[in-house]
Structures
1.
Amino acid sequence: MNFRFPRACLSSGLMLVLLTFLVEPSAHAVPSFARQTGMACEACHTVWPELTHFGRVFKANGYTLDNLKQVRGVTVQREEILSLASLPPLSLMVQVAYTQLATPLPDSSGVGNSQNGTASFPQQISLFYAGKIAPHAGAFIQLTYGNDSGTLGIDNTDIRFAGLQVLPGDQSLIYGVSLNNNPTVQDLWNTTPAFGFPYATSNIAPGAAVSTQIDGARGQDVAGLSFYAFWNESFYGELGAYRSAKQATAGPLDSASAGGVVSGIAPYWRLAYEHNWGRHSLEAGLYGAKFKIFPDLAASDGAGYGQVLKGPTDDFQDVAQDLQYQYMGDKNLFSVTATRIHEKQTYSATALALGINTVGADLTTFRAAATYYYKRKFGGTVGYFSTTGGAALYNPADPANEMPASLSLTRADTQGWMAEINYVPWLNTKFSIQYTGFNKFQGLSSNYDGTGRNARDNNTLYLLGWLSY
Amino acid sequence: MRNVMLLSAGLLLILCAGAVFADEVVDPEVVAHAERLAVGTCGTCHGVKGVSKQPKFPRLAGQNPAYLAAQMKAFRSQQRGDPDAIGYMWGMSASLEDSTIEALAAYYAVQTAVGASVASDGASVARGREIYEKGIEAAGVPACSACHGPDAHGIADFPRLAGQHAQYVMKQLASFQNNMRNVAVMHGVAQALKVDEMRSVAVFLETLP
């Protein structure tokens, strides 16, 4: 069945497109770690932010490895009660960018087009506290100013406690707990959403309107505690739970809260196996989460439904697979990352509010990327992305129960590819030329918005200067 | 007068003996600190007991303590200049004290070295053994065993090579050859080695117990 896009819905469609601008991947390679350990970036990163095996172990160990002079405190039993670096582990990250769309976006007045060719100076500036805070504890805390929000806010944050146990047979067990604000930000591989490719994209260009919950949708909106163990640097297991921790919202949350409040706690789990041989590293894993979310209908149908934080919820069950391969030669570095996230959606609460039958949907996201670098200096990545199915709040068994057309705009299907060329003159400086091509955008290749705009009109050329120091 | 001289000599002897003895006494605090470092910090790359799994990082279990201590001091003074030394070890060794270095070297010296690993290329191993035991006369390459011992367990200040990762050995030979790792003896030896000869020696050494 074709979707209908009455003119009255175009503005809400545009809103949705604009909303997608707000979902921007954050990025992270932190020179304060280099200052703390005295090691060059190449110890932890192939080329930042992609982690090497050593980088993964460093992260699992709670960012605590150091060589700096410490301010120390010990008890009479010689128990270490303070170990604080004499210099705070601070760093700054700056992204400046330029974005050019294949066809400019329509002007919000409905007459003519907006200006194409957008300079972002900066797109983002981040301040990090990234390093050890106590003998077995460390933190990665990011404060970001974004030019789109025009404000400074909390970004990815991961505070850890970690320990190491030597097991019989000289095997190691790293264990710990992470307190973080974005499911997968604590993960060790560059396959999962928080630190997966693309590491930086334009915050001006249109992107997929719909994503699975674990794919960044809840980033900086939740607080989670997760327990993990990494046995022999091979088997990794993690269990965690997230709860709404919205920013710029009065707490406790009430009916005036912005959309997407998680009911109760959302469980998170992760299993992975990594095998290293010679210069090769291979990882395969599973991860997932389940979110019960109070629907926010006020924004979408204008009928005055509030964010009532009780009663039924819409449920989102995410199960994902991921795979990573890395080859690290002295001159040639190559890596492949891939993930597939499947989300089973059940819109019980939304259906109840709108007086229709409960509807369900499946949303599947697939991303894969291959990266090559020569001498960590010249490199490139090609990637594919696809989000299909799901999100259309429509009951195929009963056409009379069709959702308001404004909601049907959330149809997912967005597919395309990315190509990126990178020049890394110094290990903490990267210049990128990135091109994103869309085959499908919000369900259609052509006329996806009802005004004749085609998917390929959103093709994006993105120039990025990225400094970390 | 003679008695005074004898007494003085005796005192001097006792003092000297005391000094030597004091030098040999190892502070248990330092040993405990070194063990924590070895497991929690060094172990991240070199394995908790010095048996690294990543071939980029050398195995240290069973290594000669004199050699290890000398290397750590060379990292600390930034005299060992191969790329991984600069990238990893200059930083990690920067604040190590001499006593900690000695204790770390002692820690690794007593760890059990790994057994032989199976090499895939028998011809390469055989060639490597030949070079290791006899050198390459025509190219003026002396036998490695002359300094590193017939079993490659090292002699005095010369390092143990048995069971070392082939990738690491290869990289070191290349570093000696182009003088990034500035050791006159090894520069002389490695200068005439071709890449496939280095590889043969490296895979042979990896098979040794």
2.
Amino acid sequence: MDWFYAKGILILSGINLMAVLGLSLLTGFTGLFSFGHAGFMAIGAYAAAFIGVNLGLPLIVSLLAGGLVAGIVSLFIGRFTLKLKGDYFCIATLGFGEAIRLVLDNVQVFGGARGWPGIPIRIDLWNVVLINLAGIVFMISLVNSRHGRNMIAIREEELAAKTIGIDTFRYKMISLFTSAVYAGIAGGLVGYYTGFLQPKMFGMTKSTELTIIVIFGGIGSVSGSVLGALLLTALPELLRAFALWRLVAYGVAVIFIMISRPEGLMGGKEITFRGILRAVGFGHKHSKAREV
Amino acid sequence: MDILEIRDLTKTFGGLTAVENVSFRVQEGSISGLIGPNGAGKTTIFNLITGIYKVTRGEIAFGGRIIHDLEPHTIANMGITRTFQNIRLFKRLSVYSNILTACHGNASYSVADSVLKSRRFRTEEKCLREDAVSLMEILGLAEWQNHIAHSLPYGLQRRLEIARALAVKPKLLLLDEPAAGMNADETQQLMHHICRIRDEFSCTVFVIEHRMDLIMGICENIVVLNFGKKLTEGPPEEIQSNPQVIEAYLGKEARIGA
């Protein structure tokens, strides 16, 4: 396997990881399932490409702007759907994701269903890694603050969260907004890596893939999401030798993990430096995996 | 002074009237009780006070302010917290995390503070952690701090729920059947805890309970509900000998041999 090929897979993992980190906050820490996050990716992708190509702004600014646009759209969606209970929110996001794809399919400004070619390629492994590191640091700081704890409280027992004074609606909005910004940035990365955008890239399959990675990696674990994104993006590539059967093998692998470890790879636990030190024989007998 | 005043409170669910024209007051600093047979509307009143249900008619005033049209979290932050009849802990979190989460109101750092690890973040977070630890010590939960909430024995889960409510620093603490499922020993301990909480946290306690030993043992004033209406109200000795209350609980005296 040559380096160029491996690098490509790593970049794709990084792009997925960015979207998964955001979804992990919403699904893993706040307990809200979304099957429309590819919609936020699409918004971010087209917005970032538009801003970069037409206004000539630097990469990082266009990515952030793309994320911000996705975030702003999420505030409108959240305003109307986050008062819905559990499953209904999930169905609303599913509808949203498909609606975004269909709108982009039919609006000719960005090339419609034929796609938008000729976006300058500006993504390399180093900047994907840097952006992801920033994303991981931000996410870990967030979930370990009072804000993160309030979101976890909503996941655990929403009524009790209200009675200890947590504005649950506000925190669901913050969670949705943050996750949409992450998805938007991930979308921007897609455009600047492949140089081509097409609405079909952001369909239901993409949304479900992201949710599968979050659950596979483990609900309520940032390191689980990282592991999940790396493994599940690389897996279909490693299975290329099986040709048509590779997606079947992928499905079987996911089902096998969910049966043998229903809580996901890391379920509620994190990999920490102290834990690694202890695992290799240094450090004190502190907890290897910290409870979230 | 009255910390809580309920005036002509009515709550209907469709055609069913769960609470009808109930009025009473809870005195500041007291331990008061709310009793009545099953289905009398006791928990409904708690849900109305905490804003979980919306009031159909009537008023609820807390410290002189009308609160019945506020959101539950606003009411909580004003100083009313509660426990639930069917325990609602953050089940998969540790004892420590349960309490720490509830301490959140004593910090005000922003998301940016937590990412940048600013001085404000560090000092406030340190305070929160100290608050949580001291609460665990006061309620005798310190040795269980790393246990997952739902793995605790039942009595401790109840106590943890009270600790979590106290973390919000309430002025009025509502306890919904805190002794349910407890044996006599645990109930004694709980009574002791409730009195201590009232004194040490200088809050008012309003408790729903079916265990008459607890109610009669610690309450200064008792409100009796029956079929959604207030039957009577008064100090324990008076309630114990009130024929209406006895009738509501036990039915009318049967005439033997008639």
